[in-house]
Amino acid sequence: MMNADELFSTAKKILKQSFGFSSFRPAQEAVIQNIFAGKDTLALLPTGGGKSICYQIPALVYPGTCIVVSPLLALMKDQVDNLVENGIAAAALNSQISPEESYEIRNKAIRGELKLLYLSPERIHFELDHLLSAMRISLFAIDEAHCISVWGHDFRPEYAELHTLRKRFPQIPLVALTATADAATRKDILSQLQIPAENTVLSSFDRPNLSLNVKVNLKKRDKLQEILKLLRKHTDESGIIYCLSRKGAETLADDLRGNGIDAEAYHAGLETEERIRIQENFLNDRIQVICATTAFGMGIDKPDIRFVIHYNTPKNMEGYYQEIGRAGRDGMPSDTLLFYNDHDMVMLAKFAEESGEQELQLEKLHRIEHYATSPICRRRILLSYFGETFDHDCNHCDICKNPPQRFDGTILAQKALSAIARTHESERSEIIVDILRGNRPQEIVEKHYDELKTFGVGRSTPTEKWEAYLLQLIHLGVIEKSYAADQHLSITAFGKEILFGKRKIDLALIRNENAEASKTSRENS
Ligand code: ADP
Ligand code: ZN
């Protein structure tokens, strides 16, 4: 058996020979080094970050077969076709495979003739006692690992069974990969697959070439004008406009065509041939703009999409991030524009209430609301949502281009952080505000919070302002709000630096509405 260094130099050779790439990206290297060191790993790489290489290369270096669990049949097929084209022995077992094919693939797998075998999650349970115990397995790769968690945006019950892999084959290395996992989802993946937290590889989720812009509560007519304005900047360049409904996508495509734009609607209600035709035409630049429901985009690999517009409010940050991430995959400057709207929110809240996990979906919806309406650099909010500390403003979003008035909020933040620390990071924001304000509702008295040193230190700041500042601190990545039912606040590593006086933090000034109003009335008189 080769040692880790020898394995890695073999890996580099194979990368060149089989894929034609001269080097690994830093995150890929970190993941592969981890695998070679025998560490189970969680890899968080943004879309386009190169997740497949992370397990395909170890699969080729190690003897035996790598089992890849993937939930998307279409992507599975693409990947296998690509590998086979590159002369790599790969196959997939899923519901689309005929019994004859399946028989042949299983035999190959048992004879050790496959380097990679893709399985849909529902197959795993069955194959555990059949195929998997009869094979020589080199590595388990769990793709789209966020599907394992109910905190994620795409929970799949079959994924919840995957912890059995870890139990049945404890000696076989495992790598879990995902492009979207907020802090809560991440913790859940780690615990279900028994991966030590320090084995997480987090590549930055920042996409610096994307400009982030939000317009709040525009009328239909004004939205169209904004879209046409953006299109004038991107003459002959491709873009996607995401809409909430099929009807909405069709109406918008009609309106755009009425304005001389080459636009088509795309949604799950179209015939398969029609959808394929539209995709092909878009890929080949024969259609400029696609007005689509979220059905569009999975597996679309068009590097030069120059803009992504959300015509309606998305239902969570994960989906939003994934969709804007389809712009500018070639690294060239690209624009994103979100139309946030209170009407959409009412409808999305209704959907959320009808869904199985009402509270979680509503909370996710609130995060979108905050993203769209708070006076903090959009990129900071986005990245702190994904658990990344981005400690400066981006200068490439509409807030940064037109910043609100700011003040040094370090002392204010320290007061809040100290209240959170003294309640052992177990309380929700209302309680923290009560402590800061020195309020004595029953819960405060029962828990003896009125005896804390921090009790009442923020009396001079009104409740609404404390609430707003706490939100800002969440968005700046200073504190984290849990998805668990108790919604407790905890302090991030960045927050600890502020608490201990090692860093300063600026906050956006929240105007005192009443004082402002009386000031203007005085000025006017
Ligand atoms: P993801 O699954 O994370 O979205 P992919 O695995 O599809 O990303 O890879 C995204 C793109 O990056 C692909 O076009 C792939 O060929 C390319 N790529 C991956 N790794 C490298 C590398 N080390 N060097 C250059 N290009 C790479
Ligand atoms: Zn910014």
UniProtKB/TrEMBL annotation:
Pfam families: DEAD, Helicase_C, HRDC, RecQ_Zn_bind, RQC. The keyword DNA damage applies. Residues 223-371 form the Helicase C-terminal domain. The keyword Transcription does not apply. Residues 32-199 form the Helicase ATP-binding domain. SMART domains: DEXDc, HELICc, HRDC, RQC. Keywords: ATP-binding, DNA damage, DNA recombination, DNA repair, DNA-binding, Helicase, Hydrolase, Isomerase, Metal-binding, Nucleotide-binding, Zinc. InterPro entries: DEAD/DEAH_box_helicase_dom, DNA_helicase_ATP-dep_RecQ, DNA_helicase_ATP-dep_RecQ_bac, Helicase_ATP-bd, Helicase_C-like, HRDC-like_sf, HRDC_dom, HRDC_dom_sf. Gene3D superfamilies: HRDC domain (1.10.150.80), P-loop containing nucleotide triphosphate hydrolases (3.40.50.300), Winged helix-like DNA-binding domain superfamily/Winged helix DNA-binding domain (1.10.10.10). It comes from the Bacteria. Its EC number is 5.6.2.4. It catalyses: Couples ATP hydrolysis with the unwinding of duplex DNA by translocating in the 3'-5' direction. Its cofactor is Mg(2+); Zn(2+). Belongs to the helicase family. RecQ subfamily. This is DNA helicase RecQ.
